[in-house]
Amino acid sequence: MFYSSLIDGLGKTGRVDEAERLFEEMSEKGCTRDSYCYNALIDAFTKHGKVDEALALFKRMEEEEGCDQTVYTYTILISGMFKEHRNEEALKLWDMMIDKGITPTAACFRALSTGLCLSGKVARACKILDELAPMGVILDAACEDMINTLCKAGRIKEACKLADGITERGREVPGRIRTVMINALRKVGKADLAMKLMHSKIGIGYERMGSVKRRVKFTTLLETCFDSDF
To answer: In angstroms, rounded to a whole number, what is the distance separating the alpha carbons of residues 46 and 33?
Structure first.
């Protein structure tokens, strides 16, 4: 843990070359390099754009020293690949992790879904989200992360579709997510729509239409109120 903490600290302060030297010195001194040490250096590499070096180290950790490639290892690499716009490689890493029987954490899916949403692959992110259900990953939390990401990117329509997915499972959209969506609408000049959402039953209950009680959808509000160029 001592070496991994040092490597991590050097990486976080941008001293990646020193972190790498310390990592290599461990082997020369007969010190065992565990997953913590590998992850610390892989993290340093990805955060400073050295994803090829990170991938090489990723292969070494299993082939040369038999270290476990943990879900955290994959999370670091997936995030790093998306940051460098190497989306297909990020997806291959995800598939590799699933094939190895490693259960993704919420943080791991967050790295994947953020990268996919920001690169326009929202449908792919949603498909993977559905595949996670049997693994016990908390879907609502994952959906919230994706909605937040899409709203920050100004992609309100896609965010609304995901929000409807939560209500279709019989759940309420949390107030914090409604707030994110309201603020996103304001930022794109849709203050009137933001106010309508603020005072509506969308995502939090039902509205009665005569004798019929129905849950109002976010996308319905969009279709009736959004300009065609939005």
So the answer is: 19
Overall size of the chain counted in residues? 230
Residue 189 region by backbone torsions, left for phi larger than 0, else alpha for psi between -120 and 50, else beta: left
The predicted-structure confidence for 52-101, as pLDDT tens digits, reads as follows: 999 999 999 988 888 999 999 999 999 999 999 999 999 999 999 999 99
- What is the rounded distance in angstroms from the CA atom of residue 125 to the CA atom of residue 77? 17
Nearest 5°: phi and psi at 137? -70, 135
**213 and 180 Cβ atoms separated by less than 8 Å:** no
Phi, psi of 213 (to 5 degrees): -105, 125
Q: 34-37 long-range CB contacts below 8 Å, 24 or more apart?
A: 34/4, 34/67, 35/61, 35/67, 35/68, 35/69, 35/70, 35/73, 36/1, 36/4, 37/3, 37/4, 37/7
Domains of the chain: 1-69 (1.25.40)
Q: 26: burial class by Cβ within 10 Å (0-12, 13-18, 19+)? A: middle
User: How does pLDDT run across 36-54, given as a tens digit for each residue?
Assistant: 999 999 999 999 999 999 9
Read off the pTM.
0.77
Phi/psi for 13 (5° steps) reads -95, 10
